[in-house]
Hints:
By secondary structure, the protein is α/β, with parallel strands linked by helices. The model has no long low-confidence stretch (mean pLDDT 95). It has helices at 43-46, 58-61, 77-89, 153-160, 186-198, 213-226, 234-244, 264-271, 274-277, 280-286, 291-296, 310-315, 343-348, 368-378, 394-397; strands spanning 2-7, 16-20, 25-28, 50-52, 72-74, 98-100, 108-110, 113-120, 127-134, 137-141, 168-172, 204-207, 229-232, 258-261, 288-289, 301-305, 322-326, 355-359, 382-386, 409-411. It has 15 helices and 20 strands. 29% of the residues lie in helices and 22% in strands. The chain binds zinc ion.
Amino acid sequence: MKICIHRGSKEIGGTVIELATDKTKLLLDLGLPLSKNSTHIDLSVLEPDAVLISHPHQDHFGLIDQLDSSVPVYVGELGKNLIFAARKFLGQDLPDNNFHHFEKWQPFQIADFCITPYLMDHSAVDSYSFLVEADGKKVFYSGDFRASGNKAFLFDKLLQDPPPNIDLLLMEGTMMRRNTDRFPDEASVRRKIEEILQNQQNITFLIASSQNIDRLVSAMHACERTNKVMVIDFYTAWVLEQVSQVSYKVPTIDWEQVKVYADRGMNMRIKNDPDFFGDFQRRLYRHRVTIDELEAAPARYLYYSKMSRSRIMELYKKFGPINIIYSQWLGYLNLKNNDMQGAKEISAYQNDPLVNFTYAHTSGHATLDILHKMAEALQPAQLIPIHTEHPNDYAKHFDRVMTLKDGEPLKLS
Ligand SMILES: [Zn+2]
């Protein structure tokens, strides 16, 4: 088997890895780069026979639109539904790829490759590591993972029964030189949210990704324990609807302590697309909360929000200081390298006397000790860094490390 990291050997995101036999060329992930200075990828030259997507984050699947639509793209079914959800609410066309799905822990075949997907804990749901076997060789690709979220047991499951005789481990290292001391796990974030809700005098806005399901569950738990109501938008409601098909633990609009706030733009998207959304709009309206209800008792509510909603946040300052819990990557507030909608306003809230600004977030990625545990469990003959800014640090921490450059081919022997 031959391997080539086309992108991702020295950066976080934009991952594209090629595994090839004489007959078949497989790509692991097809990500959009997060950095503007990334290695350029020409898909027309790569011509893969199939693409395997580890999870529904842009930096792992974002290039699928550029792929010839006949090429099979393998992704978890929920992951695909969440990719579709984001596209629909952004008003973008759905990708017209030739999608295929797999079942967790069930081996399947793509030509002469045998693939076993290992469901993992990550800040995206439906995230996988892949065991890829061909030509008598075994490659394990970690994808993005951690062991500090609500699905940490999945990592323990891998440790208890690791696939044996791994020739090559491709392991992510996002957290190399980073630590998670302030919020080591999702439970610590949940406790912080709860503490703020317990004492709130006005509304609390929690700024987090609608696709961070662990965070939505944490927010819901905090609301339940403090007798608050969680307000979500139509997009978040649709995301939860998708996840609830496979997990009864996630909140949905049918839960008593969940209310939906109608946004005109999102409402139109649903209304104009009954083929896709079915009777969802009708159901949403049964669980709506109006602005009058929110203003009548703002301290009853936790509003799960995007950064771009500062206009709504402003409305509640007339009742006194509002709480803002910033619950995503701090880098989005760094205005120098970011043009995200709302970043400027939210960043300014850090110094606003009418805002109690709190940071509460934990990483989607494995800390060094968790990376150690994976490497120890899998005992690979070779370990190659991926999805890291510090590939050269690996040799300090792990045995049998080999670094590859973007585009550098390697034949497994
Ligand atoms: Zn990810």
